[in-house]
Model the fold of this input.
Amino acid sequence: MSSTASARLYTPELLALAVELANVPLHPGLALHGEARSRSCGSVVTVGLDLAPDGTIIALGLRATTCAVGQAAAAIFVKGASGKEVAAIRQTRADLEKWLYRQGPRPDWPCLAALDAALDHPGRHGAIMLPWRAAEAALCNHDAAS
Done:
């Protein structure tokens, strides 16, 4: 990646998002846990969730062992996940994948525009998807227990 392309990808906004993860640590007391790993780079995101009786997310924590783009994506996930229903998480994951492959519009999710430059970096797409995939894994654990 050239230094110019890198500068466009690693914007101050993206880097600021990446450091926000310190505010949402993963706690073992959260009821549901899921993990996702990128096949392309080995990055890992683990998500912990608590759900309200109506199925909305009421608490979450996250651990990301990934590049700054993946960390920013995890922070973006956190910004929009609280209060969301399971179906909304799953739909956003599907819409996000379409957007990354330029097969649909950017999903309606807070701060997602900070990842616009990543569209031109397919090697980062897997890291961007990790928080949503980890949340789906956690929700699958809930579905299996229900």
